[in-house]
Design goal:
57% of the residues lie in helices and 15% in strands. It has 500 residues and is of the alpha/beta class. Strands 7-6-5-8-9-11-10 form a seven-stranded mixed β-sheet, sandwiched between helices. Strands 1-2-3-4 form a four-stranded antiparallel β-sheet. Helix 3 (65-81) packs across helix 6 (130-183) and helix 16 packs antiparallel against helix 18 (487-499). The radius of gyration is 27 Å and the shape is elongated.
């Protein structure tokens, strides 16, 4: 039956859209707060509970089932369509954006929970075969969920971003309602009103999709104090570059990565201190560092070959082509001595067979489970296997003052894999006190000063002070960060909450 197939198609569409709304709200909230595990957990849990409430409430819809179903689809289209922009705006203008986020989860979940029971009863009006109806609807419902879960990370988010994806999913919900309006108009009690509403809402969502880029720019300008000169959502993250006079800043998923005013302090400490401990560093591996700034410092040495492994092609591409960034990194990523590999650092190390004289781990802070994996004992075990006997490893380790548990957990995790570990820290005005953990396979007889290249901040005179920590920068109540117990994410989120 054609009408039945069209109704099953609506089940497929609404299920895919439903899953996308969950992912959008979770991802946006994670973008804002950084607590990925908590945001996804609370979204899924609250969403499922709201769906249960919606299923219960559907029993009170006794008459005009076609009108109810179309009305629910239109409501989901509107609420789901504006979900992303509403959560972002709430973060800009409200003290606690979570209230708005929770309301959207509850409303969308409740309406989605009403969909399938009502659609089942609609189909039963004609078929009178509950066994066949249920099996067909749930089959299309689950397949739609699978489609949505695949389409969101691979197609929708990378190419459209949060705003356009939400508006587009809302449009698809309205189209599902439109299918029922067209094929079952005679069963609709308020067909004329519903037709007009369907057209109006579909038009508004289309406008929203078309203008989503402008909306995104407005919101981003509210989130960042400086002028945004580059913004792109990649498959993995949101990359934004801002400019205020001579200050160029890079943000990844809302987190500041560097300021051109003082980034040299960070990168001098990251690169030259471990380089000074290696007698002959020729083969060098950088994990992360897609901005090319650590590479710039390494190229000050003559006989080096650098392998840079960064997951995101968007990051390495702008660092090779964007004039603001290339001016900072001095076109380091275009140097013949540099090989760029766009891959996951963990996966690269798993298949790597080379030995490196220096390994620089310049990754973003462990603010989610994916990044936390790159701070585990297993990851450092892979680094140990890739390091030459006389080589050195250095890990950017967040702040020993603002996040002491994170810093010392990294230190303890490195030591658990057999490294001799040497913690040090540098004052970077933009970030405050920032820490690094240098590690070697064999104990160093002394920490050698930086003398081979000219530096602005890391001079021989201050070397000893960099390896000295105050009492308020130390803690003993920490654990090793492992794959099965990723404590570092919890440490990091606790530190963010404390200082926010």
């Amino acid at each position: 039956m054609k009408s039945e197939r069209l109704l099953l198609l609506t089940a497929f569409v609404i299920s895919g859209c439903s899953l996308c709304y969950e992912l959008i709200i979770s991802a946006v909230s994670s973008y804002i707060s950084g607590d990925t595990v908590w945001q996804y957990s609370i979204t899924i849990g609250l969403y499922m509970a709201a769906m249960g409430l919606g299923s219960y409430l559907s029993k009170f819809c006794n008459h005009n089932l076609y009108d109810w179903f179309v009305g629910i689809e239109l409501a989901i289209g509107v609420i789901g369509g504006i979900s992303a922009v509403s959560v972002f705006l709430a973060n800009l203008y409200l003290v606690s954006y979570q209230v708005v986020m929770y309301l959207f989860i509850i409303f969308i979940g409740c309406l989605v929970g009403m969909e399938i029971p009502i659609l089942t009863r609609v189909m039963e009006l004609d078929r009178q075969d509950l066994r066949h109806t249920l099996s067909s609807i749930f089959a299309f419902d689950y397949l739609g969920g699978l489609f949505g879960s695949v389409a969101f990370p691979l197609l929708l988010l990378p190419h459209l971003g949060y705003m356009a994806t939400a508006f587009l999913c809302g449009f698809f919900n309205v189209m599902a309602a439109g299918i029922v309006v067209i094929t079952h108009r005679h069963q609709l009690k308020y067909s004329q009103v519903i037709k007009i509403l369907t057209i109006v809402i579909a038009t508004l969502l289309t406008i929203g999709t078309a203008t989503s880029e402008s909306i995104s720019k407005y919101i981003e300008n509210g989130l960042y104090r400086d002028t945004i000169v580059f913004s792109k959502q990649s498959e993995y993250q949101k990359v934004i570059v801002t400019r205020h006079k001579d200050d160029i800043r890079l943000f990844i998923d809302g987190n500041l990565q560097f300021s051109s005013v003082d980034e040299y302090r960070y990168h001098e400490g990251l690169v030259h201190i471990p380089m000074a401990q290696v007698k002959a560093a020729h083969n060098i591996l950088i994990l992360g560092g897609g901005d090319g700034l650590a590479t710039r410092e390494l190229l000050k040495y003559g006989n080096v070959h650098i392998t840079l492994v960064d997951l995101d092609t968007v990051m390495t591409d702008i660092s090779k082509t964007n004039p603001l960034i290339t001016n900072l990194n001095q076109n380091s990523l275009s140097d013949d001595r540099v090989t760029i590999i766009n891959d996951d650092a963990f996966k690269y190390l798993e298949t790597n067979t080379k030995l490196y004289d220096l390994i620089i781990v310049d990754l973003p802070d462990p603010n989610n489970a994916t990044l936390g994996k790159l701070y585990t004992n297993i990851f450092y075990r892979l680094c140990y296997g890739a390091l030459s006997e006389s080589g050195a490893l250095v890990v950017q380790s967040t702040s020993p003052y603002y996040a002491p548990k994170v810093f010392w957990s990294i230190n303890k995790t490195l030591a658990s894999e057999g490294f001799s570990v040497y913690p040090y820290h540098i004052q970077v005005p933009t970030f405050g006190e920032w820490g690094f953990n240098m590690a070697t396979k064999h104990p160093l007889s002394e920490i050698k000063p930086v003398t081979a290249v000219a530096t602005k901040y890391v001079t021989p005179q201050i070397m000893n002070s960099l390896f000295t920590f105050g009492g308020d920068e130390q803690t003993t109540d920490i654990e090793v960060n492992t794959i099965t117990k990723p404590v570092i994410n919890e440490y990091y989120i606790d530190a963010v909450r404390k200082w926010r």
